[in-house]
# Entry
Amino acid sequence: MGNVVLKLADDVSTDVIYPGRYMATVLPTETPQFAFADNAALNAALRGGQVPPGSVIVAGKNFGCGSSREQAVSALKGYDLTIVAESFARIFLQNAINLGLHIVTAPGVRASVGDDLTVSGENVLNGTTRLSYAVERLPQARQAIIDAGGLIAYTRKRLLDTAAGVTHT
Amino acid sequence: MGMTVVEKILARASGRGAVKAGDVVEPAVDLAMSHENAALVINQFLEIYSGTGREPAIWDPSKVAIIFDHRVPAESAKTAGNQKKIREFVSRYAISKFHDIRGDTGGICHQILPESGYVRPGAVVVGTDSHTTSHGALGAFAFGIGATEMASVWALGTALNVEVPGTILVEVEGEFGPYVGPKDLILHLIGLISAQGANFKVIEFHGRTIRAMSTSGRLVLCNMSVEAGATAGIVPADEETDRYLRDEAGVESVQEHVTADPGASYSRVISIDVSSLVPQVACPHAVDNVRSVREVAGTSVQQIVIGSCTNGRLDDLEVAAGILRGKKVARGTRMLVFPASGRIYAEALRKGFIADFMNSGAVVMNPGCGPCLGVHEGALGDNETALSTTNRNFKGRMGNPSASVYLCSPAVAAASALEGVITDPTEGRN
Ligand code: SF4
# Structure
């Protein structure tokens, strides 16, 4: 499906994904230019279009820890990337669900830059090493936000439902 | 089965008889805080209503707080533009808990909320800032959310899809030695359980040491709970909480305390005796890379920072001023002091701490986040090292990816400022 363009260790913070000094930039149309800004080569490759759509970033545990800045998600979302990690930090995970960034939790996942990964709802198959990793499902309530097309659409629906007398329990 | 404090708070806020860890609930929100990132919240909020034919409406403007702190006064035209846009929104939607850039009522959001009496025991507090965990110090369930989620809270008044977190019970006993305190305790705990050790969990603090600790110290513990990945930190409300709310936050009404049921279930119990704890430091570039100050003593530092939502309160300034009084910051080291709020600044001025800092050679800056997140002032040069009382030392955090940041208590920061190298304040002082 896609090649691994970046392999990261555990505990990659949102300061690394989207450095704080670009935080005054908030619009999802403007944040992608600063994705991994302190990794000059990667940032240039992303902006120069050298990273093909569908590419995969593979991370360790606790990806997106630290600041709640949503720019860390909107910046990555600008590039049609899939993020596969052993686990995500809570706020990053929520933000990714809310904005519709394609993230997949696959405990134990192993891959190197250049490996070919196929990601489904069930598992992540590393076509290079021929190893497969089970995907951790999202709780149903979170899946509902994704299915609605993100939190904005989901909230809009809830507002209109409430006005129409539909209750949610 | 008995419920934990947070389970009880969430059960009440979601109108349920009982909830347990792992349940997904939609609690009513008592307080919704943002800072300059309200600029993004506003965009998302208006987007929710677009195409619906309905006027955007905030569910309860009296429960929304907006505090300017991250870049105050604005460092760029862009930030000034964001702040202007937020001011217009605030007046249009009659948001009363708004703290603009002012010397009297301004400051860091996580200091303004408690000192203004906005946070109450048992409340559900959300903030578009990861250190919203701070407010657990007053017995509230407080956690960070993203800007889009805040927009949804503004519209609905509930937080959608909150997973009831499991609880890690931390029992703290013993008396702190001289120049050892809450910052050393929380750094020690994070080092012990790691930066992911409390992911999707609440850290609930108990024990005699916590009961004897001031709200200021409890704020340090809850503030940094997120550095262990915790959804929240919480100190169940007690007499000290009542005292703080009454004497320091001007809250007249009596508050109900939420306590855990006997038989509440905990995912982990950790006991710590602080009587043998020595000053701690988090080494670059991870908050859980914790060692004793002694192990890294002698490391030279070019910048010392005292301040932030973690350690910019009056007791922090008092300890630091006491160490610096009548002495000089070492040549080659610059020291920056950022009181956490205007009120703290004024009090520090009255008590003479500000004069102590200035006479020692420190630069006292206006209240705000300052150099903590590396976007406003106090950025580091290439390969420089800073020692700071803030809460994060990730690569690039102080504005330069080639620089290094060590985290410590105000006592360690002040003692090190005098020497220009990381110094254990307990050596030669007691
Ligand atoms: S002082 Fe630092 S950690 Fe605290 S709110 Fe400001 S930027 Fe965040």
